[in-house]
Amino acid sequence: MNALLKIAGGLAVATALSAPALAQTTVVAPSGSTAGTYMDYMKTVYDRGTGSELLQIPIATFDKEFELTPMAAESWSQSEDGLTWTFKLRSGLVWSDGEPLTAEDFVFALQRAATSGYDFAWYWDFAGGIKGWKEVTEGTADVSTLGLKAVDDLTIEVTTVAPKPYFPSVTSLWYPVPKHKVDELGDDWALDVANIVSSGPFEIESWEKSNNSVVFTKSDTYTGPWAPQIDRLELDPTLNAPEVGLPAFLAGDADYSFLNTGQVPVATQRYPDGIRKNAVFATSYISYDLDAAPFNDVNVRRAFYYAVNREELTTTVLKDIAIPAGSILPPGYPGYNPDVVAQATFDPEKAKQFLADAGFPNGEGFPEVEIWYREEGGYNGAIIPAMAQYLQAEFKEVLGISLNIRALPGPEWMDGLRGKKNNIFIAPYEYDYLDPSNFYGIFYNGGRHGYFIPEYDEIVAKADSESDWDTRYKLYAEAEQVMIDQGLIVPLVHPVTIAVVSDQITGDGVQPNSLGFTQLDRLGHYFFTHITKQ
Amino acid sequence: MIAHIIRRILSVAFTFIVVSIIIFLMMHSVPGGPFDANDMPVSEAVRAKMMAQWGLDQPLHVQYLNYMWGVLHLDFGVPFQSPGETVVELISRAWVPSLILGGSGVLIGAPLGILLGMAAALNRNSWIDYLASTVATLGLTIPVFVTSMLLILIFAVWLNWLPASGWPQPNRWILPIICYALIPLATYARYTRSAMLDTLNRPFVTVLRAKGLSERRIIFQHVMRNSAIPLVTVFLPMFIGTATGSIFVEAMFRVPGLGAYFVSSIEVRDYTLQMALMLLITFMYCLAYLLSDLAYALLNPRIRTGGTE
């Protein structure tokens, strides 16, 4: 009996050891943040479970050339008056538990988001402009008044307050929520692997909450576009820091790793074909409290605008990890306008002149100011502290003023910005959807910085609802001209991420796009479904 | 003795209450709350709703009393950053890897450190002594994230003997355990060396030698016992220091342990977890010092009676 057990045990172990080696391809990738609460993008974005967006199918998403591609939707159309969008869903989409995926699941996702304290709720007002959104989130109107309707199982109708010609690109962050699961378990459906259902290309196998790492497997029930070519996907936020990621990559524990500036030369030498760059659609800029001295004076703000040597900044202290920013819009982003960018020159004479006009010749009498930035990980963590020190030296040299630096944890920095507890900040922003309205929206009608510039707001509002794309882009350029003339911000740099990718990973996903950039996990739906592993 | 223990327990309870009040006040005096969005403001209505849901709309003293009433029933609430479980469940889950690594680190590092320290003391000014001092100095001065990096570079990247990082396969434990072990090893080597040298120079050792006792008996029965007091003083606190997880070691070796929660609970204003972790640490340190006191009494009868020499 004992011998039999031993043989059986031995066989079981042998099978267990050999089975995964047979066919399974597993990709191990850095991704996300190490803290995650719900595995539900439509419940929380900032504190989401890693990869929660990959588990679900959005209405549409972007491919590597940033072409909008229908996903759950098959097609869409805009009404004559431009206010109503009709999305037709693909038939045959199901949840991983076999329940059909319907228009109701999408409508429910947003209805819940508007009422239950979704940390990304602002997006649907700011980007989507959905009718009634603001009123419902503020609790002054009932959720039934939202401009959202499931006409039938496969048709969704959305009404916006003004024409939103770019609305389909906004839907790249519209994921369904399994209404049948929420009816049964409430928000808790997204807390345990056993209860989580998916509608996208991957299913969840395990979730380590201590560091928010996940293991996904290729979904058996997914019938939408872009089926995965790999069997398993491990997304591990602990690999995000290049200091941890690169050693793991070198030891064969990870399939790619982001690089810090010190690592770039070493990795480039060792893996010349494995280096990938990505110009993140993000911008770091200086913002002010426009009502507080000394920055309530436009001349002071314009002096700052001309006092930054962006070329020197990005070729010395930020070598390889950032490029100069002359506009709030990054290169390659829709609406990017070289004429706007050309104005952001380094001109010490002009800067000095503006400061003198403000009554501070050579910085004399200028109060000591303190610039506040937010402590962060990722690419911002690599860029901002070094940049702050550069600015400190630069402003001293060019303007003759003393700038102190203060790093604050996220909530305190945000609190300072919102509560106008300081007068100058370094602010980073990464795009949320692919349209200029995204970046211009952060200064619109108060927005993120409490800026209320009627002239700017008027142009942006007009641009947002303009249906002719050329006219729109022209209007946005006008809006940015207002920003420049009034010195509302100082665009500093656009971050670039550099990664090294294993040669075992092949497929379109790791091939650079026409601009030479490889998006890696930033366009997760495209990337993770367009790679294979040998 | 019993009166002594009771007094100590009462003082532990008092410390516990004082610490809890201080932490609670400090925690709430930091600007920003758990539901302030990172990038864009949430609407006031929504924020108020979430604050109410977690009872954060109540006056501070009510919140404190509610929390402490829960603590009395071993209910530490639900962590904001992991709503599917209780704080107790979170800690008992995340503590396992930290305990395994930190515990093994101390259990391996401390005896090795003692041996090294003894060898150094008994061979004063020899190469062993210099080696021990070098190891001890390096172990205490090089930050763990540098040691981690070196270990990964040597054993995972160059030699390819071990995985660089990760969890839970036991071969992935080896490097972080070495990393953890270096600190107690270094500390113990130093303490043991100086305590033993101190004891070896005392007159009673000369007397024992004069009595003709074997050197082995002198060292192990007399010198060691008399040198043990400072070692006991550092042992338990050190054990706690490593067993609660090091944010650096855990981050470098990608260990899903408790260490990161100390930082994240403060960062995201996870009040319930923050309180629980601080109280846990307080409790453990109080307990450690209590146990150390008892151990002194066992080792040194002069402490037990509270008398003079």
Supply the key terms.
heterodimer; A: 534 residues; alpha+beta; 8-stranded mixed β-sheet; 4-stranded mixed β-sheet; 18 helices; 20 strands; globular; B: 309 residues; mainly alpha; 13 helices; flat; SBP_5_dom (chain A)
Between the first and last Cα atoms of chain B, what is the distance in angstroms?
A: 18 Å
Structural class assignment of chain A: alpha+beta
Report strand % of chain B.
under 5%
Q: Which descriptor suits the 3D outline of chain B? A: flat
Biggest β-sheet strands, sense, barrel of chain B: none
N/C terminus separation of chain A: 43 Å
How much helicity do the residues of chain B have? over 70%
Mean pLDDT of chain A: 91
Number of helices of chain A: 18
* Helix count, DSSP H or I runs of 4 or more residues of chain B: 13
**SSE string of chain B, helices as H and strands as E:** HHHHHHHHHHHHH
Average the pLDDT over all residues of chain B and give the rounded result.
Answer: 87
Biggest sheet descriptor of chain A: 8 strands, mixed
Name the shape of chain A in a single word: globular
Any overview of this molecule?
- In chain A, a hairpin with a 4-residue loop joins strand 8 and strand 9.
- Chain A is built from 18 helices and 20 strands.
- In chain A, the strands form 5 sheets. In chain A, strands 11, 12, 13, 14, 15, 16, 17 and 18 form an 8-stranded mixed sheet that branches.
- Chain A is 33% helix and 19% strand.
- By secondary structure, chain B is mainly α.
- Chain B has 13 helices and no strands.
- Chain B starts with a helix and ends with a helix.
- The mean pLDDT of chain B is 87.
- Chains A and B meet through helix 3, helix 7 and helix 14 of A and helix 2, helix 4, helix 6 and helix 11 of B.
Write the layout of secondary structure elements.
The complex is a heterodimer of chains A (534) and B (309).
Chain A lengths: L1 H22 L2 E4 L30 E3 L5 E3 L2 E6 L5 E6 L13 H13 L5 H6 L6 H5 L10 E5 L2 E5 L7 H4 L8 H7 L16 E7 L4 E6 L13 E4 L6 H9 L5 E3 L4 H8 L4 E5 L2 E7 L9 H9 L3 H6 L6 E3 L13 H5 L5 H10 L11 E6 L3 H22 L3 E6 L1 H9 L5 E7 L5 H6 L12 H12 L3 H17 L3 E13 L3 E2 L17 H6 L2 E2 L1
Parallel strand pairs in A: 1-10, 15-16, 15-17
Antiparallel strand pairs in A: 2-3, 4-5, 5-7, 6-7, 8-9, 9-10, 11-18, 12-18, 13-17, 13-18, 14-18, 19-20
Helix pairs in contact in A: 9-12, 16-17
Chain B lengths: L1 H28 L14 H10 L6 H13 L14 H36 L4 H15 L2 H15 L15 H27 L2 H8 L4 H29 L3 H6 L6 H9 L3 H29 L1 H5 L4
Organism (chain B): Devosia oryziradicis
Subcellular location (chain B): Cell membrane
Membrane topology (chain B): Multi-pass membrane protein
